[in-house]
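Consortium newsletter contribution from the modelling node. Members have asked for a concrete example of what our holo predictions look like. Here is one, prepared for the zinc ion complex that several groups have been discussing at recent meetings.
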Amino acid sequence: MVAVPSGMDPRWRSLRRPTREFLRALVDLALPPACVACGAPGAELCDPCRRNLLWRRGPACVRCGEPVLVAGRLCGGRHDELRLITRLVAPLGYAGTGGALVRRFKLDADPAAAGWLLRTMAAAWREAAADGWRRAGLVPVPLHSRRRRERGFDQAAWLVAGLGVRLRLEPLTGVLVRVRHTAPQGDPRVLSRDRNVADAFGLRRASKVRDRRIVLVDDVFTSGATTRACAALLRAAGAREVAVLVACRS
Ligand SMILES: [Zn+2]
Ligand SMILES: [Zn+2]
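And here is the predicted structure:
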C-alpha cells in the first residue's frame, strides 16, 4: 500500500477530480498481500517478477544512466535523444517487470503498482540529484484531455503530486499543456515521432519556470521525442536546466 494521505497538501487539491479520486482509492483500499506486478498472492514482488526487474544501477553515465566502468563519467554516446536535457533518471528498463508495473499503473490504475513505482522513482532521484536541484520544480508531461477522459486519470500528474510530497519539490502541474491531440507515439501509422508531437504542447505561467531547474516527469522514456518537445518549450521560457525522471527507459 502507498502511504499517501488524503487530507493532504493543499497543492494536491488543484489536481483534477479523477486524479483525486484515484488518490483517495489508494488510501481506502485495503488490499490482501499480493505481487504488485503480477497479482500472485504473497510477497510485494514475487520471486519471478523480482528476478525480471531490469535495474539500471551501479556506475552509470551521468547524462543517460547507461552503465559505465567508472562512476561520474559519460558513456561516450552522442546523447542525441537527450537534446536540451541535462540528464535522464530512469531506475528500470521497460522490458520485463518494469513494463508490467507501468501497464498496471497506467492502464488499470492499480494503486499497489502505482505506489511501488512512485517509491522507486523517488529513491532514484534522491540518489542521482545534485545539490543544485533542491529548488527544482516538477513538471508532468501533459496528457491531452481526451486521453485523460479515456484513462480516467493523468499518470504523469499523479506521479508529480506524489513525488512533490516525497522529494519536497514544487509540483508545477498545468505549466505545460497539450494543445493538440496526437496519435500514440507507438502507433504504427506514426512515421516520425518528432513530427507527431511538433506543436502539440503549450506553456502557461512561464514565470514559474524562468531561471529555474525543472524535472520533467513521465512514466516511460522511449524515443524521447515527447520529452524533447517539452524541454524545448521549458528552455525557451528560460528554464536553466531540464532533467527527466521516469520509471522506465525502453
Ligand atoms: Zn509477480
Ligand atoms: Zn550516456
